[in-house]
Protein: Geranylgeranyl transferase type-2 subunit alpha
Organism: Chaetomium strumarium
Amino acid sequence: MADQGGSQHGIARTSRVRTEDQKKRDLERIQKYRELEDQVRSYVSRGDYSASVFQLTSKLLRLNPEYYTIWNVRRRCLISGLFSRPSAGSSCSTACSNTSPTATTTPSSTSSSSSSSAATPRGPASQTAGRSGTTAEASSSGPEASEARGDSNCDAAAAAAAAAEQQDLSTIKTELSFTIPLLLESPKCYWIWSYRLWILQQAIQRLRSRVSRQIWEEELGLASKMLGKDRRNFHAWGYRRHVVAQLESATLQGGSMVEAEFAYTERMIHTDLSNFSAWHSRSKLIPRLLEERGADDAARRAFLEEELSKIREALNVGPEDQSLWYYHQFLVLNLVYPDKHPVMTRGLTTQDRIAYLTREIDEIKDLLEDYTDVQLIYEGLFEYTLYLCQLEGRQADAGERADLVAWLGKLKRLDPMRKGRWADVETELGLKEGRDAE
């Protein structure tokens, strides 16, 4: 019988009472799990990382993908035999460099006497009698035979390298496929994401760049699908940034993807304004975006205007959404601290910054007409008013002090769990005396 026990993130908490049969089945599963674990540990203690151990890790990780030690055992199994092992002289270039033909001068019967005297005559030991008693001009140890053996070695090395790459490619794809069901079931399991990255690094080390790049591009598609299922999965967002960085690298013969990724954040924000990770990624992309666009001061100012307009519209829809306020704060900090955040505000004068910040404060005050009990609005007004005084190099005037006192009163009521913090702020800024005087 289910017992309602509250909810978290909109999901009801329930407690269930298990029957004796259910308890018995659970104990049996636990026993099988422990036996499987003991088997793996027994093999590992003997240094055995064979295919048998590899299969055991598959069974164990399907039961518990959080078991990071078993992921490490799986890695050892791969590098101990399932991946190809490069051997000395296995590449075509190595084989060919060791079999270069030797130039030999052979005198001709039609050469002049001076040419004949310059050539090195062959002694009896270098001559081989044929069936007719004549001397054979080529032998199995001659330059033509050496060159033929070199070509043969080169072909064999190329075939071996191709076979090794095909083996590694198959193993890499199989491993990536193995983790997909685990990710779908546990999309925020750190160890699965970590293992996939390790497999992808093996692709870079073992495959040609063209083949490796194709695998990494497919991985970017997977990251998009995972974010489609859970738009705010910060594991997937961090993973996506890593994949993009690799695709942009010279190792994979890549180029900048900043425009495409910026457009991606736009789509994700349009789908869900509360997507903090999308706003965060957007803030990280902006410096590179403006730099690669070659944006001058006017273009940067226009970009700032556009971003402020976008976030104001979002705040009008959801002023209780903390994700929006974080991004708005990011933009405001560009105005307040130009030395630390010069990206969008390069070329703005102090008066320009003051004008922008004053407008933002006025826009936030307008929100109070429709939303009187949203804590984040009062926090924003309080913080930005102090920033304005800082930019202008002055103390708050009487009207601003009255506003600060009133906003603090609201914050104490709306945020009682941090009432002590607001009291400390009140004392630190000398607002308590002003409130008492009133």
Q: What stands out?
A: The longest strand covers residues 3-8. Confidence is low (pLDDT under 50) at residues 1-5, 86-139. The first helix runs from residue 20 to 45.
